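Task card 7
Instruction: Convert sequence to structure tokens.
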Amino acid sequence: MNSISFALNQILFPDSPFENFISFSKKLNVKAIEIRNDIKTNLIEENDPIKVRNICEENSIKILSINALQKFNFWNKDREKELIFLCKYADKANIDSIVLVPLNDGSINSAKEQMQLLEQSLKNILRVINDFNIFGLVEPLGFSHSSLRFKSLAAKVINNYQSNKLKIVHDTFHHALAGENEFFPSLTGLVHISGVSNAYKNIKLLDSHRSIIDDKDMLGNINQIKKLCYSNYQGFFSLEPFSNTLVKEKNIFKIVKKSFNYIESNILD
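Output:
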């Protein structure tokens, strides 16, 4: 193995114009990004998909996903309408996938109900995305109150449907929170990476603690990334840090570059 393919999630630039995000990615020599529909700079509402596609093509940058269809496993007419809208946007903007994020409010505790909701929603999602050149990326959230916490459950349902249109997001933060040991490289369509400093080891972890990966990381990112790199996963590792402190850093380029160098030097032969 000679290289690792990094991508950037737009959460890194939640308040900046899209062009600034692209310029940063290009400067960092990153060839792929993810855009979001849950931040202040909401491309889905504010930008024509053709414009977004053209900006990316002009800079040789691929958009991997729209993040996200929220509460995907609580399926209803509104969810279906939103998914169709996102698929149409992604189709025009030349975006590969829609990230599927589960209900995360602690209201679904029964394992049986979680399975039923997952099966029903993915069946309906497949019905929609089969009409588009779009993949669905199921992202289990490792929080104890998540209605889909484990990748193993998502993998079981996806395998039952035997469709290549559904993949899993391996998120290193959520993998660590869930305490899950099993990896599913052949089903993994995207990897989200972020680090949490060992200064937070005695508190309940939240998205806001997620930052870059360095030698203080307590999530075992290097081991997780190694495991995936040396399996048959050949996709991108997308940095998804939610830390407001990181976003406000004036020297964010140097910080992210240093983190990427740290990862590469620790996983490559």
